[in-house]
Design a protein that fits this description.
This protein is mainly α. Helix content is about 70%, strand content about 10%.
Length: about 260
């Protein structure tokens, strides 16, 4: 039994030094095809995520109800920093796996619970950066600063969109993941901005029929971002060559 390690997709070092180009038409088309193929698995994982987050919020709200506004703040912090990150990371990584031709299961949603502290730290750092910038702009420029802070918030959410898969797949520390994601997105900011504008427009369209379109949009989003990650960073894969009694080789793949 021999194991071979190789990268599918892009090369993160090359993307950082030489840049990259995204074929948006091809990415959108591939995301649609992949979403059709893996729709059931991913939508079940998304629904399970919603149930977990909603149930956690309800239970913790009741537990901290005696603390008033402070209790609500504590609940929001727990959900945002501890409960949500590993679940959202799992959804993103399911999209990454689909992008390289691997199957996933709905219970893969719990695969990254062991990385909760790292993912929570990254979330905390992103939240701190955005809040500090927002406060500074609002206090120095007033209403104009508030409007600018919204633009900056959207920009930072876009530039940090690769943080979770970088931590989960590349196993880099949170602070390095933030730095890499920021640099990678800004290497081709124009195309990334256009891509996110398209995603926002699709989200608005999905919300029109009483929000029912979101059950198609959300899996599509995670699969699309999986393709983007594959093309920019590449995905490490282990190929295990296995021989049966007839010495016929076959390949088993895992990311």
């Amino acid at each position: 039994m021999n194991k071979k390690h190789f990268i599918l997709g892009g090369d993160i070092k090359k993307s950082l030094t030489e840049g990259y180009r995204l074929d948006l038409k091809s990415i959108l088309k591939d995301a649609f095809v992949i979403s059709k193929k893996h729709y059931l698995t991913l939508i079940l994982a998304c629904l399970l995520t919603f149930v977990i987050l909603a149930s956690s919020y309800t239970l913790m709200t009741q537990a901290f109800s005696g603390l008033g506004d402070n209790g609500a703040m504590i609940v929001n912090y727990i959900i945002t920093l501890l409960v949500a990150p590993p679940l959202l990371t799992a959804l993103q990584m399911m999209g990454v796996h689909h992008a390289i031709g691997l199957k996933s299961k709905s219970n893969d949603l719990f695969h990254y619970l062991n990385m909760t502290l790292k993912l929570s730290l990254a979330t905390m750092m992103i939240s701190l950066i955005t809040n500090v910038i927002s406060v500074i702009l609002t206090q120095t420029l007033g209403d104009l600063g508030f409007k600018l802070s919204i633009v900056v918030l959207l920009y930072l959410n876009m530039t940090f969109s690769l943080v979770y898969p970088l931590i989960a797949e590349k196993k880099v520390p949170p602070q390095m993941a933030l730095k890499l994601s920021f640099k990678l997105v800004n290497k081709n900011l124009g195309q990334f901005t256009l891509l996110f504008i398209i995603l926002v427009l699709l989200a608005v369209i999905a919300l029109v029929p009483y929000g029912l379109g979101m059950i198609f949009y959300i899996p599509f989003y995670f699969n699309l971002m999986g393709i983007v990650y594959r093309q920019i960073c590449g995905v490490g894969v282990v190929a295990t060559e296995v021989s049966d009694k007839d010495d016929t080789p076959s390949d088993e793949f895992e990311a």
